[in-house]
Automatic annotation (TrEMBL), chains A, B:
The lineage of its organism: Bacteria, Pseudomonadati, Pseudomonadota, Alphaproteobacteria, Rhodobacterales. The keyword Chloroplast does not apply. InterPro entries: Tscrpt_reg_Rrf2, WH-like_DNA-bd_sf, WH_DNA-bd_sf. It comes from Salipiger marinus. GO terms for cellular component: cytosol. This is DNA-binding transcriptional regulator, IscR family. Keywords: DNA-binding. It comes from the Bacteria. Coiled coil: none annotated. GO terms for molecular function: DNA binding; DNA-binding transcription factor activity.
Length: 130, 130
DNA sequence: CGAATCGTAACATATAAAGTTACATGAAAA
DNA sequence: TTTTCATGTAACTTTATATGTTACGATTCG
């Protein structure tokens, strides 16, 4: 698909798509072809790509919205709070990343297919009714 | 302490302090007194206040920086991704909140005291050297 | 009364994410 | 070879949000 097509699907802008897909290209998850009939392709087996890979490739801001105000604060109160929460944040992040690592694009494709069939069935029903 | 004093400690603005402390007041964690000699007081035993209580009271944006673009998307791809991650997010958030619920302000006060003593000792040493 | 303090509305500023424009580069088709 | 259609990317604009600021009313104590 081209950046223009993707931007329509995603309700955004082609340049924004190129910006994000660029990260995936550098991570060797997608390939891009320039020129006529060019665009974006997934260049690895869907079963080998996990949501964790995508997250890592996109370098999204951070897992948590909460975080330290500063990494090595002089303030002793802040130091105490950081010390108390560092472990908790690390554990929660590790858990989340592990779960993301367990979901492949192949899994999602399968689920999508199921959902698509279900929607089609519902629409068929509805068409039959009217 | 007054909002002005707190804002100096925190490197921010007195109105910002009132805004945040207002949430803690509504959660009955702190009390405020107006007028002369007024200001803010913690109005519960430190051992009964956890970081989770503070987080809940402050209604911070969200635990995670990542999240759903929309809660009930029409897009089937988005539905599949949400379904795959909902459980993971819920687990990680529960773990984090549990850990936050295990840390009381009394714990933090104790840790602060220890750090303060350590710093004083280091400064004493240093003074002794020079 | 008057100074000190919170409560809150209204407005200003800063920052980052997203969107936009513009154009160079590259590749296939005519 | 020229045209057309893509990506790659820099520069700028817009938008959203958190933060900071000003202003002033309400309350309390001396």
């Amino acid at each position: 698909m081209t950046s223009d097509q993707l931007s329509l699907c995603l309700g955004t802008n082609p340049v924004v798509v190129r910006r994000s897909m660029g990260f995936l290209r550098r991570a060797k998850i997608v390939c891009s072809d320039r020129g006529h009939a060019g665009g974006w392709r997934i260049c690895r087996d869907l079963a080998t790509i996990t949501l964790r890979d995508l997250y890592a490739a996109l370098e999204e801001p951070e897992v948590f919205a909460l975080g330290h105000r500063s990494e090595a604060p002089e303030c002793l109160v802040e130091q105490a709070v950081n010390a108390a929460l560092d472990q908790a944040f690390a554990e929660a992040e590790a858990l989340l990343l592990q779960r993301m690592g367990e979901v492949t694009l192949a899994d999602l494709a399968e689920d999508f297919t199921r959902r698509h069939a279900a929607r089609s069935a519902r629409q068929g029903e509805h068409t039959h009714d009217t």
